[in-house]
Design a protein that fits this description.
Keywords: Cytoplasm, DNA-binding, Iron, Metal-binding, Repressor, Transcription, Transcription regulation, Zinc. One of its GO terms (cellular component) is cytosol. Belongs to the Fur family. Helices cover about 40% and strands about 15% of the residues. By secondary structure, it is α+β, with helices and mostly antiparallel strands. The chain has two domains: about 90 residues, Arc Repressor Mutant, subunit A (Orthogonal Bundle); about 45 residues, Dna Ligase, domain 1. A three-stranded mixed beta sheet has the order 4-3-5, with no helix packed on it. Strand 3 and strand 4 form a beta hairpin.
Length: about 160
């Protein structure tokens, strides 16, 4: 179940962002927030998946509007964009975002999120070594599925 308060907070932030940008506040743009923030927090979705979800729910929205809106959501800090290996861009909500890294299975394409404090220790150590205040990082591990009868292998 989507957190309605979180969705309303996202919409208010987006509205203020659009006003500062001098951009139009269209119902279609806000419907993208509804759909993105209705997904589970750890779900990643591409434009086509979002388009199909929205069409199946009766929205009349173009792929171009979804692309443009997602770009604005990333720019406003309400969405995070990921580009995994050979996959299309995937998006996830950002208001609930806690830094995490990703594991992507080469066979079943399942994306798993993980967080390990040792990675932050390495980041701090490298920052000291290079005399750099590291502000962010991205780590994606790719592996081959070894799960017997993996349910995700049937969807590719």
């Amino acid at each position: 179940m989507a957190d309605k308060a979180l969705i309303e907070k996202a919409k208010k932030i987006f509205e203020n962002f659009l006003i500062k940008q001098g951009s139009r506040k269209t119902p279609e743009r806000f419907s993208v927030i509804d759909e993105l923030y209705s997904l589970p927090e750890d779900e990643h979705i591409d434009v086509e998946g979002l388009f199909l979800n929205m069409r199946n729910k009766g929205y009349t929205i173009s792929r171009a509007t979804i692309y443009n809106t997602l770009d604005l959501l990333v720019e406003s800090g309400l969405a995070v964009k990921h580009q995994f290996k050979d996959k299309v861009a995937l998006y996830e909500q950002a208001l609930t975002y806690k830094h995490h890294d990703h594991h992507v299975c080469n066979q079943c394409r399942k994306i798993r999120e993980f967080s390990d404090p040792k990675i932050n220790q390495i980041k701090e150590m490298i920052g000291k070594e290079f005399q750099s205040a590291i502000s962010s990082h991205s780590l994606v591990l790719y592996g081959d599925c070894q799960i017997k009868d993996c349910e995700n292998l049937t969807v590719i």
